[in-house]
Amino acid sequence: MSVKLIAIDMDGTLLNSQKKISAENIVAIQKASQAGIKIVLCTGRPKSGIVPYFEQLGLTDEEYIIMNNGCSVYNTKNWDLMVAEELTYDEIERLAQVCASYPEVCLTLTGDKSYYALADEVPDLVQYDAGLVFDTARAVDMADLKAEGELIFQAMYMAKKEYLDVFQAAVDGDLSQDFSTVRSQEYIYEVLPQGATKASGLRQLAEKLDIEPAEIMALGDAANDIEMLDFAGVSVAMGNATDDIKKRCRYTTSSNDDYGVAKAIYDYAL
């Protein structure tokens, strides 16, 4: 069965260690699109951290982007929001209470338009992360958040690794009962609406496009890619992925610094 859709993680996959897209990857993605294969960036990033990269790909057909680790799906023709999973204010208040006794941990929220820190002021680590997605974090309280009324897709607890390790060990057993949780980076522990993963977003999009899982190729390198890789019929681990990721996948390509996405497209899709 031929590949009709390619789901591509960004950090550690499409982007190299310098957070850039290689010319080799761009050419391969364009060839796949020209062959009629749908290109879907599938990432934990919010819209602000995706659009500048997507524009570099130079794709002319309507494509799709799964953002916020599966909480939102947009088309790229007019940036309509096709799928949305959101956190309620009650859930956000609960998440704030969970970290109240951990002053080193900051609760951040990704909305449809804004990057929030639920705090009196934005910690340097949070502002650093916001900068990686070409945004600026704003400090808000619950009253401000409710007044703005923005859709909140995901929450992220941020702290230095040693603090976040302790925090996650203490709270994950409880939170994972009611939310989808994942440690996406050493300084980020994510909390998403229950059932929301990259795979859930990809499944909903595939159904809309009438594409079977067996016709999907997915590429990834990290823990928040696991469900997506398990869902796709053609799963490809990056050369820089962990051994656990590689064992789960049908294939392994070269690393993100050695044009692994392009190699996988030529080897398994074209």
Automatic annotation (TrEMBL):
InterPro entries: Cof (IPR000150), HAD-like_sf (IPR036412), HAD-SF_hydro_IIB (IPR006379), HAD_sf (IPR023214). Pfam families: Hydrolase_3. Signal peptide: none annotated. GO terms for cellular component: cytosol. Its EC number is 3.1.3.-. It comes from the Bacteria. Keywords: Hydrolase. GO terms for molecular function: magnesium ion binding; phosphatase activity. This is Haloacid dehalogenase-like hydrolase. It comes from Streptococcus hyointestinalis.
